[in-house]
Each structure stands twice: as C-alpha cells, then as structure tokens.
Amino acid sequence: MAEKKPAKVPATASLLVELLTEELPPKSLRLLGEAFAEQLVVEIVRHRLKDRDPSKQVFATPRRLAVLIQDVRAHGLDSEHEVEGPVSSNGRAVEGFAKKHNVAPELLERRQTSKGEIVVARLRISGVKLDAVLPSIVEKVIEKLPVSKVMRWGDGEAQFARPVHGLVMLHGKRIIPGAVLGVPAGNTTCGHRFMGAASIRLANADEYERKLAQAGRVIADFAKRKSEIEKQLQAEAKRQKASLGEYQDLLDEVTALVEFPAVYAGAFDASFLEVPQECLILTMRQNQKYFPLFADDGKLLPKYLIVSNMRVDDPRQIISGNERVVRPRLEDARFFF
Predict the structure, then answer these.
(1) Confidence class of residue 337 from pLDDT cuts 50, 70 and 90?
(2) Strand pairing class (56-61; 174-175)
(3) Other C-beta atoms within 10 Å of 4: how many?
C-alpha cells in the first residue's frame, strides 16, 4: 500500500484568526476589533509573511474578534542583516568577529569609516514558518490590546477583557496548530446565541463571513452591521412619519450589542411628554439604548425605536417587553422633575 503523502502547503493563502469570547465591553468593541487587526497585520509584515499594506477585513461582534488577511505566506521571506565589526587591521579581532557570525574571514566586506577601515558581515536570515510563529504572534497582539480591565477564568493564568472559549486559526484550508490563552486552535466557530447554528465548521478561511451570515445569523463586520442598523432605523422612522435627531454615538454602541439586528418601534404614554423632553431623551438613550423619534418641528414624539438582537416574524412580545421596562424609567424621570 502506497504511503499517503502529506497535504501540500500553499505558498500563500488567506489567514483567518478569530477569538470567541463572552460578551465584550460594547463601548470599546470597535476599537478592540481595529486594534486586534492592525497589530496582527504589523506582526505578520514584520515576520515577512506578508508585504506591507496588506488587504484585510476586520470583524467584531459582542462575542468575537476576528481578522481575515489576504495572501499570507506559509513561509516568510529570507532577509539580509548587516553587522559592522572591528577595524580590519586588528587580525585577531577580525577572526573572532568572523567566527562569532559564522562567516569566513575572506567573505567579510571592507568599509571606510571615521574609525578607519572596518569589516562588515552580511548575514542571511532564513524566513520563519507561519505555523511556528502564529500562536505567539496572536498572544503578543492580545497583550497589546487597549483593555482597561482584564479578568482571569478557569484554573489557568490566561487573562483578557472577557473569557476566551474558542480560537480559529486557518491558513487557507489548513488549521494552524497551537493554542492561545490555553485555547487550542481549530476551524469551528459559532453562530448567533439564539438564532444561529451552535457549531459552524469552516472549510477555508475565505468563507468565514458568508458562513457566519448564512448558518450563524451573524453579521460579523462591524461597519456592515452598523450600516444595516442605520438603514433599518431610517426606514422605520419614515414609516412612523418621524425623524431620528442626533443618533451616531448611540448607533455605535448598539452595533456593539447585537450580532443580527432588527429594528422595532415602541411607544409610551403621551402624558410623559409633560416632562422636559431632554430628560426623556436622556433616559431613553442612555439607560435603554432606544432611539427617540421627533416631529418635523423637533418636538419629541411618544415613540422610539428599539434595536433588538432577535429577528422574529411577530415582534409584539419584544415590543411589549421593552415598553414595560421603559415605563418605570420614565416614571422616575417624572418624579425627579
């Protein structure tokens, strides 16, 4: 029986790295996602596994940070490093220098400097293998992330903003072996907590976003998810014959709270409009993460928009639940006013 040949390692392929976590802090999610991607790219380029300014796609949801980098080498390029040595007239020192750098003395270059003629060694450094360095690169990147407070979990020493429960490291179709923060790498991710598949196997790195959207019911790209929410907000505000006012800061925050958004309209008793609208707006935006609706003259309407993490055919239960929750908040605003 013929011996099975090992799978051929491609020269270049897309690299996917995903950390699966518990819910990340929403106010810092976008920054965390961008920093994770940027620092990973810096390290990949530094190890000559990719040329400068590589194309990448950044993903960040409440339960994951991920980056997809195109055309990453399986083996880094070799490089040359120049080391200046002693003056050429000092034979013993030159001999020691050559031996130290494993270079034949006759191959040392000569160069004129202010100190006189010196010897120079040109050292060829072999490129690193992606498999050998990626786990340590990812751990180094995690250590540099802008996390104000870290936590530990389990019995190990691993620490991060939230516990990490899953790790994907794929180079094309290949799983990069290794572990990060004590979590072994694989090719399995997870979908939406309630609406998507609990386990999604990735055949290759490039299908990550598509598979998550289709099987996982997750819009993994922060910018695309934000755009989808804004589109739904504008459409629902139009249906309500209202406008949204200023909402960009809140939009960023709710984008970090959901993975598969749906916008629904809720209402409150018009008697609460006796309270200064600034108090009601603050309560809805800051405490409930709702988007207040306004009339053409800028006056607050007894309506608001909810960004839910659940898309359902009949949203009445979601809407009524939110209306029950917001009423005591508005009662508090009226009491203190």
Answers:
(1) low
(2) unpaired
(3) 6
pLDDT per residue over 44-67, tens digit each?
Answer: 999 999 987 768 999 999 999 999
Cβ pair 37, 67 in contact under 8 A: yes
**CB-based contact 20:216 (threshold 8 Å):** no
C-beta atoms surrounding 33 within 10 Å? 25
Ramachandran angles phi, psi of 137, nearest 5°: -60, -50
Is 152 in contact with 159 (CB distance < 8 Å)? Answer: yes
Phi and psi at 175, nearest 5°, equal -80, 125
197-233 pLDDT per residue, tens: 999 999 999 999 999 999 999 999 999 999 999 999 9
| Lookup: tokens for 57 | 């796609």
CA distance 262 to 178: 38
CB-based contact 179:185 (threshold 8 Å): yes
Judged against a pLDDT cut of 90, whether residue 28 lies above it is answered with yes
The letter for the amino acid at 100 is K
DSSP string, 203-229: SSGGGHHHHHHHTS-----HHHHHHHH
Burial (CB < 10 A; 0-12, 13-18, 19+), residue 266, is buried
Q: What is the DSSP letter of 186?
A: B
Distance of alpha carbon 78 from alpha carbon 35, whole angstroms: 28
For the stretch 154-161, contacts whose Cβ atoms lie closer than 8 Å and that sit 24 or more positions apart, written own/partner, are 154/182, 156/181, 156/182, 158/182, 158/183, 160/21, 161/21, 161/24, 161/25, 161/28, 161/32
In this structure, are residues 208 and 16 in contact, taking their beta carbons and an 8 Å threshold?
yes
Give the other-Cβ count within 10 Å of 270's Cβ: 10
pLDDT computed for residue 334 by the predictor: 81
DSSP states of 26-94 as a string? GGGHHHHHHHHHHHHHHHHHHTTSS-SS--EEEEEETTEEEEEEEEEESBPPPEEEEEEEEETT-HHHH
Please report where in the chains the tokens 């629904």 appear, as a residue: 264
